[in-house]
């Protein structure tokens, strides 16, 4: 395999619980009183105000979670599902789970009951820590698939004003008030299971990547500390939420590993509003995705950034989808803060190719992070020698996950020792910069998140007007991928296509229907009605033909 420039070896001790590396070591460094978390608070909840937590307070709260789990009978290797918005309780729960030797399974907090039922059956968590706002969907899910889960731990941020802790569940807030703030840390090994990260599956159901304590520490040193050179003075703020591995690292693990701090936002934020938040919290690094950057540039042109001091902001971290060069230039020319675009994956934990301080080539994904190796393979599986040819990326590095849980065939096809065989196509230029060229399968990547066409099509077909559909991606005016659905309607709805107003109303109704069936970010942004979908001789929808239609 081709390799990056030699770097000092990263040595991970055999005995390792990553809580000690990311959190407890800050107390040993005398940073107990330093701010670890700046919590914005939920604007919709008077009982959930903004506040700042020190490292000492965060360590104590994580110990209380550990003590709670042990009181409930959980121990090493037991899985705990986390379903919460970004709050200090999320962070305390995550580290408390690991301190107990349990395995954390963060999951998307914006899903439906059927999605949570899948997680309960697939991950088989012994306990679930869930925000009270999400409880109704989880309650429905547990009635369908809750036989493996012994304990539901509910966090009510409203202090009983809007929600409550249901009978038969455990009150997390009460535990954080009453349990001891000290606990013994389970002396796990570097190769013990630590966290399962979700990676979207081809059927719409996630695949959980099994990661060990070692993986998180190794990538943090290689990428966050050595490549991005984060310091104790950094304060991060993120658009993605902590349940994404991208933000879990970039807006929690990375800053805490160097004694910095992070800003947590429990609510959804409009792109235009990030200017005020970045200024208020004097963030030094904004963790985001290209879609949000493009929307912020557009909002700035309408005055959203006026009067907002961003002088502390030195960089943006961008990943999840390719950053168009013109979006990069628009941001850089207006605000000065550099954008380090890169690519990573749940399979490899985090970013392994990136632009970096002092080395940015606009439009590219940058160079490989030191310590990782790579191959580009052509469609026949042959290694591409030299530069300028498009191939499938095979990335190799010590942060590779072990497997997809309970998916033997997919695991063997993807994980080959420390190498991960992906589905993305890249080109390497003569200067060693990687350029993203698209995916080799039908998966979409919208707003930094993989979206399965099959899942969207299944939601579409539930609308009474939809006979059949085909879902592909299209590029918006900023060059970012969005979801488009080509739809055949039933004969009794064809009259609604006779005039533009009726057609537009039907399209909006179908989109709203999808938002009620699947997570809103997966729903199509555009509907195009067609008389007949293009098909192969065997009747399968020709997605390649739909992609060509989408370009037009």
TrEMBL record:
Residues 455-540 form the AMP-binding enzyme C-terminal domain. Gene3D superfamilies: 3.30.300.30, N-terminal domain of ligase-like (3.40.50.12780). Keywords: Ligase. Residues 36-405 form the AMP-dependent synthetase/ligase domain. One of its GO terms (molecular function) is ATP binding. One of its GO terms (biological process) is secondary metabolite biosynthetic process. Pfam families: AMP-binding, AMP-binding_C. NCBIfam families: benz_CoA_lig (TIGR02262). This is Benzoate-CoA ligase family protein. It comes from Plesiocystis pacifica SIR-1.
